[in-house]
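Allow me, if you will, to draw on your knowledge of protein folds for a short while. I have a record of one protein: its chain in single-letter code and its fold written as C-alpha cells. Kindly check, if you would, that the fold set down in the C-alpha cells agrees with what the sequence suggests. Thank you for your consideration; the sequence and its C-alpha cells are set out here:
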Amino acid sequence: MRSVTNVQIQQPAYFIPTITRSVTPKRPLSFAGPRAVTTSRPVVVTDISMIDPEGVMTSSESQGWQNLRALEMHYSKSEWTMPANENLCIIVQLGSPVDVSARLGDETYQQRLSPGDIIIVPAGRQLDWSQPENVESHALHLYLHPNFLRETAESIDFNPSQILIAPQFGIQDEHLHHITLSLFEEMKEASVIGRIYADSLAKVLAMQLIRRYSYLKELHNRGGMAPRKLRRAIDFINENLDQEQTVALAAVAHAVQMSYFHFSRSFKQSTGVSPNVYMTEQRIDRAKKLLTETELPIAEIALRTGFASQSHFTTTFRKLVWTTPKAFREGL
C-alpha cells in the first residue's frame, strides 16, 4: 500500500502560507479526462524543491532576497506534478532541448523546449510534467509572491484587482530571458550588493509580466480575447518580428480567426495597449538588442526593426527609452 509523507518546511517571511493539496507518489501522468480524486495525507507545497529535492542545484533561500525565490534545477524525476499554489512561477529552460508533455491548468502541450524557452505558471494553476526518462533537463524556477505583484501593479497604475497573468508555455521573450539570466547569475554571488540588485531585478520582472502577459478581468468578460487566442496573436507577432518581417494587423486578426475591428478592440481590452503600441514596444526591444550586441549602423537597425526611416526610429526610441539610439549605445 502506498503512503505519502507529510512534509513541512519553514517558508521565507515574505511568502504567505500556500494552499494545501493532496499529492500521491510517482504515478503515470494522464492528460485525458478529469483527474482522479485521491485520498492521502496533505503535503504543503511551495515550490519544485518539495517535489524534487534531489534535483535542486542552487537556491536563493540563504541570500535574503525579499520578493523572489529562485531555484536552479536538474530534474531527477521524469514525471512530477506541481499543485496549484498562491505564488506565480516562471520556468526558464537552461540546458539541452527536451521533449515535454505537460498540462498547465486546463491546457495540454506536447512541445520541445529549447534553451531560453519560458513557461509562466500563474498562481492557482497546477502544472503536470512528463519528459523521457534518462534525459537531462536543466531549468531555472522563479517564484513571485502575489502581494509583490499587486504592489508592482499599483506602482504602474494598474488595478491589481482587475488583472490576471495569462499562462504561457515555451515562449521566447528576450527581455524576460535577460532578466531571469541576470537573476540566475546573482544567485551564485552571495553579497549585499547582489541582494539589492536581485530585488531590483525582481521588480523589473514583475513589471514585465504585468505589462506583457496580464489581461483585464472585467474587460475580458465583456469582450476581451480568450487567453489561447491572445497567446496565439502575441506568438504570431513575435515570430514575424523575429524574422524581420512587416506585421499587418489584418494578418494577425486572420491568424486568430477574428475580424480586424474585433481583434483590435479585444487585444486592447485584454492587454491594456493596442496591437500597434504592442508591436512598437517589441520593435524597440529588438532595436535595443541590436544596439547592444552588434555594430550595425543605426540606419540599418531602423530598417531591420520595421521603421520607415532613421528619424522615425530615433523619435520613437526617445519616446519609449527616454534617450536616443546613439546615446543608448554609447552608454553601454
User: Anything to note?
Assistant: The chain has two domains: 20-214, 217-330. Residues 1-42, 218-222 have pLDDT under 50 and may be disordered.
